Amino acid sequence: MGQRHHKQKAASPPASVNAVAVLDIVLYPDDRLRAKCKPVESFDDELQALIDDMIETMYDAPGIGLAAPQVGRDLQLTVIDTRDREKPDPDNPGLLVLINPRIVEKSSETLTWEEGCLSIPGVFDDVTRPKRVVVEALDRHGEPFTIEGEELLAICLQHEIDHLKGVLFLDYLSRLKMRMAMKTYKRTKAGYLADLKKKREEKGDPA
Hints:
Layout: H1 45-60, E1 65-67, E2 77-80, E3 96-106, E4 110-116, E5 124-130, E6 132-138, E7 144-150, H2 152-163, H3 175-203
Antiparallel strand pairs: 1-2, 2-3, 3-6, 4-5, 6-7
């Protein structure tokens, strides 16, 4: 999940002893974003490397959530970090790795929040979702846990779990808003790709 940069300053990435890579983010309308992802069954070194790369990619974007299909993997895996480094919140759980997540409880009270998506750069619009959710998932080592989220964390959990079902925040927009979003995206996608090329050149990475 992405946000306008003025909304909050994303948390800094944690130090890693292993080599990590910034992965290419799959852009709309790539069919991989519509895949219904498979449950994770093996918690091997390959999965651990993918998790680390996804975390690095999320922070590099920068974003507050990233799902496996956004980097071309059809696995029920997402990483989330909604912390604001300028406004520390002791109740924020920090970096989350959620594997095979499912929403087990939703509040009847809703909240409208401006959402964006790292796979649809430059496009933002209001989406109404439950204000509070409870999610059951496995951590990166296969251990079960439960997380309760309210407001931004709840929105981000729902947004990322939607990705694992092939659902995008665009699907919640009216036809008129969708047309406007696509008009915006046509412009912002070109700018995003140009910035990405420049960024790679500065790092000495191949285009």
